[in-house]
Amino acid sequence: MTENRPTHTGLEGRIAEIIAPRLEGMGYELVRVQVMGKETPTVQIMADRADGAAFTLDDCTEVSHLLSAVLDVEDPITSAWTLEVSSAGIDRPLTRVKDWNRYAGFEAKAELNVPGPGGRKRFTGVIVAADADVAKLRIETGEVIELKLADMRKAKLVLTDALVAFSTAQTPMTTN
Questions:
Q1: Which CATH topology does 97-168 take?
Q2: Tell me: the pLDDT tens digits for 12-48?
Q3: HEC letters along 51-91
Q4: Domain segments of the chain: what residues?
Q5: Using CB atoms within 10 A as the burial measure, which of 2, 72, 96, 128 is most buried?
C-alpha cells in the first residue's frame, strides 16, 4: 500500500499495473481491483477522481470505456470476463495510506491475514492515522493499536451518520 496507490498481488496486481497509470493520466485514481469468479470472472475496478470531486455516472462510463479497451489489448485474462467500474462509495474500502488519513476520526473495520495485537485478526475502531507501515485505530477499550498494512487482508469504513454527513459535505450537490 502506498500513499496514492493500493497494493495488489497476482492477477489483480497485473491488472492494477496496467490500468493505474492510464487512470492517473485521465485525472482518476485507482482505489481497488478485485477479480471475482473463475470461468467468466468479473473484474471490479473502484476509482476516485484525483481532484476530489464526486465520481459520477459520466466518470464511470468514461473509465469503463478506457479500461475495457486497455484490458482487451493487454489481455491479462485469457478467458471471457466482465468489467464493472464503480466509485468507492461512502463506506469505502481503505486501500491507500491517504484514505486512512483522510478519514481519521471515523470508524473502520479491519481484518488481518495473520494475528495482530492481542492475537486477534479482526478489529473495529476509530481511525487515528496511518503511514507507509501501519494504520492506527483507537479500539473500544480506548487503546490505540497499530495494524501492519502489509498484513492487512481488508479494511473499510463503517457507515455512520457522521460519515454520511462528512461525505455529503465533501460532495456538494449540483443541479442542472
A1: SH3 type barrels. (2.30.30)
A2: 999 999 999 999 999 999 999 999 998 899 999 999 9
A3: CCCCCCHHHHHHHHHHHHHHHHHHCCCCCCCEEEEEECCCC
A4: 10-87, 97-168
A5: 96
**For residue 38, how many C-alpha atoms fall within 13 Å in the half-sphere facing its CB?**
0
Distance CA 143, CA 30 (A): 32
SS3 98: helix
Interstrand relation of 107-112 and 82-87 (parallel, antiparallel or unpaired): unpaired
Radius of gyration of the chain (CA): 17
Do 135 and 126 meet the contact criterion of CB atoms below 8 Å apart?
no
State the amino acid at position 49 in one-letter form: R
Q: Express each pLDDT in 114-154 by its tens digit.
A: 999 999 999 999 999 999 999 999 999 999 999 999 999 99
Q: How far is CA 54 from the centre of its chain?
A: 15
- Beta strands per DSSP E along the chain: 28-36, 42-49, 82-87, 107-112, 122-130, 134-139, 144-148, 152-157
Global pTM value: 0.83
Q: Are strands 122-130 and 134-139 parallel, antiparallel or unpaired?
A: antiparallel
- Output the CA–CA distances (angstroms, integers) from residue 157 to 62, 148, 169, in the order listed: 26, 17, 17
Q: One-letter amino acid identity for 63?
A: V
